[in-house]
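step=encode ok
step=design start
structure_in=
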């Protein structure tokens, strides 16, 4: 049993083929009618219309074949489907139009300047043109509705082609009217009014050439995979509006019949999870399909740096250019203003006013190169460049080592402290230790805990001047970390 989707597809195919078949039948009737009346009346305008309708018949047949093939699904040999057969049929239609126009122009010039042909502006001549206009109006509207509904370029080209028949037929009526006036109202001007039929044929040719050029240009653009005007910019804007997209990159577009294929890249924050990245890509696909219904969209994500990350990198580079390492760089936005806090490291042998001068110089450079900074606050730290001669007294300070372990475990809330080393620096002490934490603990929380351990040890043992806490993941049951 067929699904609802399959039934809908079959219904669409039948509707498209029905529209194409009705066009073939109408073109066949009009071609025969115009040919008979044109031969009986000798009107080049009507014969030109007959040739035009004959071309319509060929074009309608080509369109029928094209819409019958274009709906076939994609296969290994045609991964983009068979839609371009519709564009190819439009190209054939354009070539036939140009050939017909060349013949009409040749015959019109011959009749205007080199030979005379008797034209009979009879009732039948006018009738056939009026009937042709009525049929062409009905046919072009029906084809245009089907073309818009199914996004079929072949049907759209057919509709555009037949809509020009209405105007060209109107031109023929005008030409026949002038001939009739020359025969019955202005006999003295009959000689040049008789030329009006040939001039009308030239008018038909000009109209058809104009439409052929437009149709041909569109067809060639599609066959050469030219991007529709303005569509790329709209896609970039739509993708950029999706939350999480840093910027839209390369966009590739191609049409295959009614189907539009879009391949594009977007940059997203490189620190996002796979799930979040996929969600952003899906959001971009949905936006584009809302812009181009039914489009086949493929979005490739590239890792990128967010603006704050780039700004932090620039700040670090400016500081290091002054040979001053920087860390703990925080960028804040407040009512459109950017505020920066950072820690800088200076040699510990400097005096405070010297260190402050260095910090001020860094701040000036930051404001000069990044004018958008509203406030810069630096925290001065010693980077401990001096080489100490501290003596390892760990073995001699057993009670102190145990106190350090007790304080550390108390702050951590678990037994985690090991590998304690105590060095004496004159009347001061330097302590280093290892502390194992939950392996899934965020590094920010681990740093906060190690900072609290440092503060607690200095408060508990005032002689301690330096504390280094090495944080590490706790061991697994198998002894690995």
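sequence_out=
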């Amino acid at each position: 049993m067929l699904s609802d989707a399959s039934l809908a597809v079959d219904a669409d195919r039948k509707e498209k083929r029905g529209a194409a078949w009705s066009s073939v039948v109408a073109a066949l009737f009009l071609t025969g009618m115009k040919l008979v009346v044109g031969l009986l009346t000798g009107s080049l305008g009507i014969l030109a219309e007959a040739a035009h309708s004959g071309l319509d018949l060929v074009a309608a047949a080509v369109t029928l074949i094209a819409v019958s093939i274009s709906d076939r699904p994609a296969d290994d040999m045609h991964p983009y489907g068979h839609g371009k057969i519709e564009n190819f049929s439009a190209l054939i239609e354009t070539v036939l139009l140009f050939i017909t126009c060349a013949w009409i122009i040749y015959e019109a010039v011959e009749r205007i300047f080199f030979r005379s042909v008797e034209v009979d502006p009879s009732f039948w001549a006018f009738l056939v043109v009026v009937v042709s206009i009525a049929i062409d109006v009905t046919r072009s509207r029906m084809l245009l509705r089907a073309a818009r509904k199914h996004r079929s370029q072949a049907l759209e080209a057919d509709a555009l082609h037949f809509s020009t028949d209405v105007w060209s037929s109107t031109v023929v009526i005008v030409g026949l009217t002038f001939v009739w006036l020359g025969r019955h109202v202005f006999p003295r001007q009959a000689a040049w009014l008789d030329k009006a039929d040939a001039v009308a044929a030239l008018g038909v040719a000009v109209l058809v050439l104009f439409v052929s050029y437009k149709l041909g240009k569109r067809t060639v653009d599609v066959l050469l995979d030219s991007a529709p005007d303005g569509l790329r910019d709209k896609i970039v804007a739509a993708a950029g509006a999706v939350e999480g997209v840093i910027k839209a990159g390369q966009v590739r577009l191609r049409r295959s019949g009614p189907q539009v294929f879009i391949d594009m890249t977007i940059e997203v924050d490189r620190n996002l999870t796979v799930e979040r990245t996929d969600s952003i890509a899906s959001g971009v696909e949905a936006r584009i399909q809302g812009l181009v219904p039914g489009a086949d969209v493929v979005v490739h994500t590239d890792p990128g740096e967010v603006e704050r990350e780039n700004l932090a990198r620039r700040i670090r580079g400016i500081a290091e250019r002054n040979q001053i390492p920087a860390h703990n760089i925080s960028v804040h936005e407040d009512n459109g203003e950017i505020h920066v806090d950072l820690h800088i490291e200076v040699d510990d042998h400097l005096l405070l006013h010297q260190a402050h001068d260095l910090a001020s110089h860094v701040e000036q450079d930051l404001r000069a190169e990044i004018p958008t900074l509203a406030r810069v606050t630096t925290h001065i730290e010693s980077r401990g460049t001096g080489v100490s001669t501290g003596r390892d007294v760990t073995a001699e300070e057993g009670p102190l080592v145990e106190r350090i372990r007790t304080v550390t475990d108390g702050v951590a809330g678990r037994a985690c402290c090991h590998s304690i080393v105590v060095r004496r620096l004159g009347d001061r002490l330097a302590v280093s230790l290892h502390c194992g934490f939950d392996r899934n603990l965020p590094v920010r929380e681990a740093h906060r805990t190690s900072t609290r351990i440092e503060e607690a040890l200095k408060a508990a043992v005032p002689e301690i001047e330096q504390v280094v806490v090495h944080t590490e993941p706790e061991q697994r049951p198998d002894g690995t970390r």
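step=design ok
step=annotate ok -> The longest strand covers residues 245-256.
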